[in-house]
Write a structure and sequence with these properties.
There is one protein chain. The chain has 472 residues and is α/β, with parallel strands linked by helices. It has 2 domains: 140 residues, Rossmann fold; 222 residues, Dihydrodipicolinate Reductase, domain 2 (2-Layer Sandwich). Helix content is 27%, strand content 18%. β14 and β15 form a beta hairpin. α4 runs parallel beside α5 and α8 packs antiparallel against α13. The radius of gyration is 22 Å and the shape is globular.
Length: 472
């Protein structure tokens, strides 16, 4: 029998802000005037980030992408109009750039930037902006390497800029209410968390680099590579398949960990694990695995006790039979089919009183035994709420994280997924990839960013940059 927690709708954010505003010097604007935004990366998730920032009240004054959407030879079907081109039509007064360094230098009046590039550019784009005093909204994970995440949090604090990571559901009601319930003890002291995803849904496990192909006209491949080692262009790298290559992406864990692991990491007050171990299948020196299980051991948390946090990616089904899932005893007797569990939820929290099956985009969570919810006095709402967000499994990019970020810029009150918190969280997520790539358990020294038993990890913890892209 299912126990349900009720939900409350929140006001939607305002419609897309008026267009056509020319950039003004900072001295000509008050603290509550329109926030002028430059958007770095406008394809894929970048498209919705541009529209989300505008809908939340930002004024889009610059668009930047290494692929010029005005060029018809970027691999699109004849007569097809790309989303990126549509953005140029929508924001007609926005200046277009291919290099974010040039955009930031040429438009000093920009207040803030969104960063929606492949992972290997997150650090350089965000740092370039923050060092010029620009506020930053960066997609998850905020960096490609563990050291970069630490450095980004330090830089945000140093330059006193308002930041936010693009794990959108963090701003929504399900995660914030889930945090309040767990902290209030709905399942008692939590000792284990099990989280899963069906990713990767892109190629991983590659053993060799793809054959070189001609670079499409309108794509600046040297800029796309940026700080990473130079590789020949191939459609097996860009525009979509970069996530599976270690040079450019952080695999399935990097893509989904900052979403799915978020609620329990926050609720349990977790910081840095002291041990991380991983099992994987199909991974290589150059590409992420087809599946992996990563176990983080946290010495303590909100309840003053150790927490074991297990991540599973590559969860898949054939004829309704799921593979690579948490242990059967945690879920199998509670659902009519495995599909009923693994499509509805993405977390199991195990506490001293029972279990909670949680999904970040819904609130019909299941508690076992059900008396945990029906006999529980719900705590007050103590975490600030934001208009918009993620509801019933559907994105609502008209508000939520973008509203929270812009409110932070206006008020000076940090967004709850700002780099001060999402930096350490990204470090933890990326540690799982470190264990996967090294193939050995890690004894982790979070303070000094060192794997005590694996000095060979140093080059992954802090990656080298291509000449001309050095940054400290």
């Amino acid at each position: 029998m299912t126990a349900r927690i009720g939900r409350r709708d929140f006001l939607r954010a305002s419609a897309v802000a008026g267009l056509g505003f020319h950039i003004l010097p900072r001295s000509a604007r008050g603290a509550n005037d329109r926030i002028q935004i430059g958007c770095i990366g406008i394809g894929g998730k970048g498209h919705s980030d541009v529209l989300g920032a505008a809908a939340a009240g930002g004024v889009i004054v610059a668009l930047c992408d290494v692929a010029d959407p005005r060029n018809p030879e970027l691999g699109r079907k004849k007569n097809a109009k790309a989303k990126e081109t549509t953005l140029l039509d929508t924001f007609k007064d926005a200046r277009f750039f291919t290099d974010y360094r040039e955009m930031i230098a040429a438009m000093p009046g920009i207040d803030a930037v969104t960063v929606s590039t492949p992972d290997h550019h997150h650090f350089h784009a965000s740092m370039t902006a923050m060092k010029k005093g620009k506020h930053v909204y960066c997609q998850k994970p905020i960096s490609h390497s563990v050291w970069e995440a630490r450095r980004m949090a330090e830089t945000a604090a140093e330059f006193k800029v308002q930041t936010q990571m693009g794990n959108q559901a963090h701003a929504g009601e399900p995660i914030r209410r889930g945090v309040e319930l767990v902290r209030a003890g709905v399942i008692g002291k939590v000792t284990e968390v099990h989280a899963w995803t069906n990713r990767p849904i892109w190629p991983q496990g590659m053993k060799t680099w793809p054959k070189a192909e001609p670079v499409p006209k309108g794509l600046d491949w040297d800029l796309w590579i940026g700080p990473a080692p130079m590789r020949d262009y191939s459609p097996d790298l860009a525009p979509f398949k970069w996530r599976g290559w270690w040079d450019f992406g952080a695999g399935a864990l990097g893509d989904m960990g900052c979403h799915i692991m978020d609620m329990p990491y926050w609720a349990l007050g977790l910081t840095s694990p002291d041990r991380v171990e991983a099992k994987q299948g199909g991974g290589t020196d150059i590409a992420g695995p087809l599946r992996s299980t990563v176990t983080y051991h946290f010495p303590t948390g909100h309840f003053g006790a150790p927490v074991k946090f297990v991540w599973y990616d590559g969860v898949s089904s054939k004829d309704g039979v799921y593979q690579h899932t948490p242990p059967d005893e945690l879920w199998k007797a509670d659902f009519p089919t495995a599909d009923h569990c693994f499509r509805r939820f993405d977390l199991i929290l195990v506490g001293e009183k029972g279990r909670m099956f949680f999904g970040r985009g819904r609130q019909d969570w299941i508690f076992k035994p059900e008396s945990l919810a029906t006999g529980f006095t719900e705590p007050p709402k103590t975490i600030p709420r934001v208009p918009g967000g993620k509801r019933d499994g559907k994105s609502d990019d008209s508000g939520g994280p973008y509203v929270e970020w812009l409110n932070a810029i206006r008020s000076g009150t940090p967004a709850l997924s700002g780099f001060a918190s999402s930096g350490p969280f990204s470090e933890t997520v990326l540690l799982g990839n470190l264990a996967v790539r090294l193939g050995k358990p890690l004894q982790w020294d979070g303070k000094n960013l060192k794997a005590a038993n694996a000095p060979e990890a140093d080059g992954i913890i802090r990656r080298a940059y291509r000449k001309g892209w050095e940054m400290a």
